[in-house]
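Entry:
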Amino acid sequence: MKVAVVGVTGLVGTVMREVLEERHFPITEFLPVASERSIGKNIFFKDNNYKVIGLTEAVAARPDIAIFSAGGSVSKEWAPRFAEVGTTVIDNSSAWRMDPDKKLVVPEVNAGVLTEEDRIIANPNCSTIQMVVALAPLHQHYGIRRLVISTYQSITGTGVKAVRQYDTEKRGEVQENGQAAYPHPIFDNCLPHCDIFLDNDYTKEEMKLVHETRKILGDDELRITAPAVRVPVHGGHSAAVSVEFAKEYDLAKVRQLLDEAPGIVVLDQPSENRYPMPRFAKNRDEVFVGRIRRDESAERCLNLWVVADNLRKGAATNAIQIAEYLVEKNLVGVGTLQ
């Protein structure tokens, strides 16, 4: 299996290398790919040093799988070029997520939609991934009518520049002009501002949660509102989720459904101060669910607290789980190109 990681030197690309190695993904040839300024740099993977190559060289190598985390503009230009030579692309940017001809996949929820013909597969937004893992079994059983999702998102979701801003502010140093990732300080602060503001005064991040959740769960009528807040946290994203069901639910059954669902760890002993937190989700691949309780302000409503490492399950791990599914089902490989 010849595998390329595009954006290999970035924050998510680095985690992708770690996850590929940890999960013993079957790689016979590894292609580390990045922008021109990184070509020739050395990176370490599976006890070997590799030199970073450029996109043109990577396409010519015709990898079986190319996992992208290099930004939307790179994906828009280069993913089709890889697909043309028979490579299956798993893209972590927002470039293809809402394309009606591309699958948006969380393996625990909808991997079964994938076929051999899918040459560009979209990896959802990090907050969407962890939320739908928790919601899918409940939606299947009770039918979800409305979601109110308040997300508290780690600085790592913005990238290296945001981490540097946080570290600089934590040291009490003055940020150089143009070096800040955010319009305000993030250390010892919270910003109700994730991504850019749109014409409806929601942010792009908030609307991603709306549109992507509908697409993955296959319900265009699902009513969703999703305030998103950037918080000074490294470990992962958290979400307070209020769910309105179409049918009355049983709280014990909800817990059972979550306990039995793949990829979920239920951590819900409030009397013992046990509940999900990003500091304990860091470097883990599971989605943690707690604070499971009936919403006493409305009928058929449930409240949940959902936490996951946004760089792993929210990005790298989900992408590699997609790749694992493709290999398991024999849906990938340039040898399948007609």
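Residues 2-123+315-336 form a domain with the Rossmann fold fold (CATH 3.40.50.720).
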